[in-house]
Write the structure tokens for this entry.
Amino acid sequence: MRRVVFNQKGGVGKTSITTNLAGYSARAGLRTLIIDLDVQGNSSEYLIGPQFYDLEDNVASFFKQQVGMFGKSKDIMDFVYDTPFENLCILPAHPDLASIERELESRHKIYKLRTTLEKVAGEFDRIYIDTPPALNFYSRSALIAADRLLIPFDCDSFSQQALYNLLDAVEEVREDHNENLEVEGIVVNQFQAQSRLPTQLIEQLKAEGLPVLDAYLPSSVKMKESREAQKPMAWYAPSHRLGQAYADLFKLLEPDTAK
């Protein structure tokens, strides 16, 4: 199963949701891969630190290989690194993603990620794809490659409008490129239970029939601490309310595999 975590609005928690759900997937005994398609490399830095910038083999190198810009011919698994956490691997980002995007678009490589991941389907039980905060070549590649989409939502009116725009864009991608893509759910992030606005917005989305997942992620300084420690919540603070919220979300998504 391949999940993409995407929202065109920045700062809604794509990286936190990607890495922490992947962490609970790995803790459940599933061999799990994170693909970091965001030029900022937040997932990569979260799991392996700033040294990811110095790795020669990365997701940019993988894409360069598709257009003859990378001298060595390598299998996709050669670009994948183990993390310090059992069952959790990563295909790290690199700043070069920005400089090669136009070339990839002009060479019509939008399906390359999907065909490559289909070839390595037996290597991983779950694949999570972190995306940039824009509907560009990389996020479209991820939407085309994925089976399921999780949409982070941070409970403000601006995010609400971005959500509607995103759902329209996803429907277009589904019609044109990936009819099997399923919107698995909207993930409420940075939830503040004592504030009236978040509850009202969530109730409105549910009334409209949108798939809001009933496992909300609270706002907590523990997320910042987790990232500074380079440990997802499944290892950093699993008993904390934020760790428990991620565990609940994973159980909701994976009732047959969650531990």
In short: The longest helix spans residues 157-176. The longest strand covers residues 182-188. The beta strands are 2-5, 32-36, 81-82, 88-91, 126-130, 148-153, 182-188.
